[in-house]
Specification:
Blueprint (H helix, E strand, L loop, with lengths): L30 H12 L1 H12 L3 H6 L2 H20 L10 H12 L3 H22 L5 H49 L6 H11 L6 E7 L4 H13 L3 E7 L2 E8 L16 E3 L3 E2 L4 H14 L7 E3 H13 L1 H11 L7 H17 L2 H8 L3 H15 L6 H16 L4
């Protein structure tokens, strides 16, 4: 269990030393060291100025920490350390000096490395001050107290460090919540609120005028989308994920030299990908298209599907009852033939429409070119729609997709 250290006036220190270690300040303090500590406390202003002169040379401190702030925190820290070294009571105002210092420097933007370097400067300042004030006869007592000085500085340093990291984590969670709220508002908007667009761009650290890829993954595909996003981030891509109406939405800033969708790292991920969003303001509009596309995809999808690839499914879903009538209108002529011939004709039409090539269709179906031509002509004879004519082919494709989606009789 953790041992709780108490200051010598009986008040509890809010920080607990490391597990498995005794209280480093429980040992008796030599009277000579206690006298030296009191002398240093009498000259605390002088020690503060020495510390400020040393740390004031650090770049981060010069640019972000006001001189009055540095003096205030140095005074509190040095007084705390002297009291720990000398076994003196610590007043209430010093109980959380280490934690306050760590949190404060986070908000001032001081890098952790420079903060710890500055905090450890306390040892040099204190040790130098003690050496300057000691009588030669008391030097052995100070030598024995060196460990105590170091333990005090390390105790202070560890808890400054911990508080700094805790505050960084708190701020990161707050920023993530802010990003989530702003992104949710953007995705649910029409993109016309330029202030909101600017806020999202700032929160996501993206260029509001850049191109973006927008992808949607229903629950069954979300794990793979998260994995792809993590790998893309590791490679330097700017990628953001957002849970939106039960689906996982990915928004990725596209580099100017590779602005197409889907990005290469997304191609093998089962998801629906909308057209390129030209600017952050268009992301919500593209998202709505991607959502409709995702709703129209089959469960056995193995890679990213773009709107140009899956438009027939979206169109069929939108047609609803009209789709049933279209199917009946286009395919009713096949009702009088056998199921085997019907299946063979539809298979041939689909193969031809995939490529627009008789040769490619024949290769895919493992049959002769003339066989493909005969089947296409037979389909046209029965339905009145010839798959080799673009306009009629589009009608046939929609009808076939509506038929595929119709519930079994």
């Amino acid at each position: 269990m953790h041992n709780e250290r108490r200051f010598s006036d009986g008040a509890r220190d809010p920080v607990t030393p490391g597990e498995g270690h005794g209280d480093p300040f429980a040992a008796p303090v030599p009277e000579e060291l206690r006298v030296l500590v009191r002398d240093c406390m009498d000259d605390l202003d002088e020690l503060v100025e020495v510390f400020v002169a040393e740390v004031g040379a650090f770049e981060a401190y010069r640019s972000t920490v006001p001189a009055d702030d540095l003096r205030e925190t140095a005074r509190a820290s040095l007084e705390l350390l002297l009291r720990l070294v000398g076994g003196l009571p610590a007043p209430e105002r010093l109980r959380e000096v280490s934690e306050r210092l760590g949190r404060r420097r986070v908000h001032q933007g001081v890098p952790l490395e420079e903060l710890l370097q500055a905090v450890r400067m306390d040892f040099r300042v204190l040790w130098t001050a003690l050496l300057e004030r000691i009588r030669p006869a008391d030097l052995p007592a100070l030598t024995r107290g060196a460990v105590r000085v170091w333990e005090a500085v390390e105790f202070h340093t560890v808890h400054v460090h911990t508080a700094y990291l805790d505050e960084v984590a708190v701020l990161a969670r707050e920023r993530e919540r802010e990003r989530t709220v702003l992104m949710g508002r953007l995705l649910s908007s029409d993109g016309r609120d330029q202030q909101l667009v600017g806020q999202v761009a700032t929160a996501l650290r993206v260029d509001a005028h850049a191109d973006f890829a927008v992808a949607v993954a229903p629950p069954a595909w979300q794990r793979k989308l998260r994995e792809a996003a993590a790998a893309a981030r590791a490679a330097g891509a700017v990628v953001h994920l957002h849970d939106h109406r039960g689906a996982l939405v990915l928004v990725a800033e596209l580099s100017r030299d590779r602005g197409g969708v889907p990005p290469r790292w997304l191609e093998s991920v089962p998801c629906a990908v909308g057209p390129v969003a030209r600017g952050l303001a268009r992301v919500s509009r593209v998202l709505r298209a991607a959502e409709e596309l995702a709703a129209a995809l089959d469960e056995d999808v193995t890679g990213a599907v773009t709107l140009s690839d899956g438009w027939t499914g979206v169109a069929a879903a939108r047609l609803d009852e009209i789709g049933e009538l279209l199917t009946e209108s286009v395919l009713s002529g096949l009702a009088g033939i056998s199921e085997h011939e019907r299946r063979r004709l539809l298979e041939t039409v689909a193969a031809y429409c995939d490529s627009g090539s008789i040769t490619a269709a024949a290769r895919a179906l493992f049959c002769h070119r003339n066989t493909v031509l005969n089947r296409l002509n037979r389909f046209a004879e029965l339905t009145g729609h010839h798959p080799t004519r673009p306009r009629e082919a589009a009608t046939v494709l929609i009808a076939l997709e509506c038929a595929r989606r119709a519930p079994a009789a």
